[in-house]
Amino acid sequence: MRALIIGGTGFVGRALAPALARAGHDVVVGGRRPSAPGVDGALVRCDLDDDASVRAALTGVEVAWFLVHGLRRPDYATWESAAAARFAAAARVAGVGRIVYLGGLVPAGGSSAHLHSRLATGRALASAGIDVVELQAPVIIGVGGESWRLARDLAARSALLPAPPWLAARQQPVALADVVAALAAGPSLSPGVHALIGPELLSAREILERTAVLLGRRLRFVPVPAFPKSLAGRLAPLFTRADAEVARALAGGLGLDLVAPQPGVFAHLPKVRRTSFDEAASLALHHDRVALAPSLYEAALRVLLPARRSE
What we know:
The protein has 311 residues and is α/β, with parallel strands linked by helices. It has a domain at 2-140 and 174-198 and 258-272: Rossmann fold, CATH 3.40.50.720. Helix content is 40%, strand content 17%. It has eleven helices and 13 strands. Helix 3 links the parallel strand 4 (63-66) and strand 5.
């Protein structure tokens, strides 16, 4: 079938395109730019702010994957929902039979502006009456993922971190390979919402600790009674490669438990062997050889608290 991946030049889309091609589909990757290095499949311009380019990209498409996430835009929440509604309406006119959407897992109590926008985008896609398969994921472990970038860089660059109560919030991080497997199976899944989760339940602190161990490092934590999440979002770009807008948006979800009943969508995909956190993180670290110079923060701490390498 002819498959269109909107947002296909992002880190998930770049991994999904070759998987769909291997399955025999005619893959079209839609993006705002007419060219993008390292993208498998035919690349077409599909700017969600340009309805004509969306209509052209949808020509002959049977299933569309919606992977757009506008976190770098200050108005991402309103923009993304409106863009999704326009895209779904155009897809219906073009005769698209199904949309597969990668959203965010609903928190167990409370919410954040970022996670609320993920849900709103899913509702907007369903507003046109097309079958929508919504796969709700927590942190995705893979090179290029913003949440993984934050965890990876903090584990690589820090020697001492504050440990406020919200660092104990739990979630089920999922490997990029498993996300791709679930997305590729989207055309055969029943319409509706499916949790896309990893096999382990880990706190944010455990994610940082285990990533540091894989890097041959040891993190030390100092319990603090309070640490504003907004401050964490503003400080993150100083110690990581995170985009400032993205870090601020993601910080709103700190302290929320992102937990769903096991095994989620993988109950319908018995041939998929879910990847453990350590295996997924090791693979991501292997492929992400970016040299990370110690930050001034870490350099100062090394003088006072030399970090010991784990045995």
